[in-house]
Amino acid sequence: MTQILAVKKGDAPTGKNVAGLQAPELKWKSIGDANSTMERRKKRVKYSNIKEARKQIMGRDPMVFGTEFQTAAEMYKRLKSLLRKNARLNYQACHSIVADPECSHGKRATLVARDIQKAADVSFNHKVTITAPLQSRTFYTLRFRCTCAYCSPAQRDELPVMNQVNVSGGDTTENLPSCQGEVEVTVMEDLRHPLGIVGQQIRIQIRH
């Protein structure tokens, strides 16, 4: 014979009759936690897949570049130290930051070029590029001519004069003494954060 349990509104069931019952609010909380966990897992998988797809297309991880530092200060300090020890140099380094929606790749590259000149004492005119910027939706590159002038005046007279472009867009006829080395600054999109936070990877290459 089936036993019917009558529960008045507002009464809390007790004893063996509550077996298998769940408070609605606990049930909804459990579902919400599960959904939140699933969303985090989906984000990790999404950005992991992006990284793996890039590896397959490029044949290597495109985010690996030279020596990666934690901060710009560390990167500039190392560069400054190497410049004091070496007449010739091929320095490749990078570090990443959280992207600022108000600062485009192009604007960031211009700021980094100015910082390199001031913080690391690299000899180049950060306002005058060799060519027009190389750019796409995901990266921006500026190239500058080194002006350290370690070669002799006679050697400089034999070097070909290259056209230079003002960062603001106009041409310039300024021909500065140069070792014909280059300073290259690239800022590119960085999607490696496990929670999907968009970053910017800042790359510098000094060849002189």
UniProtKB/TrEMBL annotation:
It comes from the Eukaryota. This is Uncharacterized protein.
